[in-house]
Amino acid sequence: MAVIGWIGLGHMGGPMTANLVKAGHSVRGFDLSAPALDAAAAAGVARATSIRDAVEGADVVFTMLPKGDHARAVYFGDEGVLAHAATTTLLVDSSTIDIESAQALHDAAAAAGFRFVDAPVSGGITGAEAGTLTFMIGGEADAVTDATAFIEPMAANIIPTGGATTGQAAKICNNLMLFINLAATSEGAVLADRLGLDPQVFWNIASVSSGDSWALRTWYPVEGVVPSAAVNRDFAPTFTAELANKDIGLAVAAAAATDTPLEIGTHVQQLFQRLIDQGQGGKDCSMIVKLVDGTLA
Fold first, then answer.
1. Catalytic residue positions, numbered
2. I need a labelling partner for 202 at 20 to 30 A (CA). Which of 102, 225, 240, 256 fits?
3. Which neighbouring-strand residues pair with 26?
């Protein structure tokens, strides 16, 4: 079994490391949040006191961080991963970050003699807990192959995407489609209600018809229809509006850089921004249904 260093033990990193421990790996985890460290330790992760402590002697290092700035801070500098890991250590960034930052990590790792892959995930907290995430892995073929062996306890699907940053590109485009689907699902749900359709009956139809989507099956924003939906718990977050705004913002930025019009995506980002502006950024992203039904202006 492997020695794994892990940095970032939040809503995703915590359950992901728990599955690695269950698979028999030795995991040393670091996070700036004491509660996150406590939760990981309860699942069998060894506490690391610093990035250096987490990565020294590791066969592989995973990072799962909120933004590109955080990833750069963790990898670069005198206290970063590149300064303290052995060059034989495989580096895997599973954060969802901008293409520019992902390329910077690839370039810096290569210059320092490391193998590095960008390997963001899809499947949310439920997928992280169940070990059924989809990993999208970009990088050199040998590094992708070696990373796959470490990833298997956390994943139902492991898909090589091509060269450097293609994992991030796939994740950005996937999340763009997810949030557009969520917005469409919210509008359809509200309209169906106002036309007199029973919510469960309409969901039963849409979920086996051309209106089906992962957002409809998992996040349907009408109370009592889909057990996993945040609407049943006053929009306690499985994926916050703030993070959704960040992720779809990555797509909008990538579109601007490639001269790609994203009229629908830009509108959906504005919906998330409206939630944030009204102090609801910490609520689940499916709360955009409240903008559709007029509960929030």
1. 171
2. 240
3. 3
